[in-house]
């Protein structure tokens, strides 16, 4: 599943999702917002839409991962009530640490 955010007719961001039916979980695989459109609520709107979609399909959990250096993504996850649930220091080819966040959907 993928949502695209547009301002007027111009795409400014997207979120792509991966369904894991056996786990009853949806993972955010990408959440991207154009540099000029950041801090305007685009990422929040995309994440809220994605969560609503997952809830409507009766998924129980929603998760996302990000690099430990990506402070804006960490803050967005915390703003939406995600909890830190682990890390992997061999996840990325660049050897950056991956942080995992998840939350229960109602």
N-to-C SSE series? EEEHEHEE
Distance between the termini: 20 Å
Kindly provide the radius of gyration, computed on alpha-carbon positions and rounded to a whole number of angstroms.
14 Å
Strand content: 35-45%
Main sheet: which strands, in order across?
1-2-3-4-6-5
The overall pLDDT average reads 94
Oligomer classification: single chain
Q: How large is the count of helical segments?
A: 2
Which regions have little confidence, pLDDT < 50, spanning 5+ residues? none
Task: Name the structural class.
Answer: alpha+beta
Structural notes for this entry:
The mean pLDDT is 94. This protein has helices spanning 42-56, 71-79, and strands at residues 2-7, 10-20, 25-33, 61-67, 83-88, 98-104. The radius of gyration is 14 Å and the shape is globular. The longest helix is centred in the middle third of the chain and has 15 residues, at 42-56. The chain has 2 helices and 6 strands, in the order E-E-E-H-E-H-E-E. The chain is α+β, with helices and mostly antiparallel strands. The protein has a 6-stranded mixed sheet, covered by helices on one side.
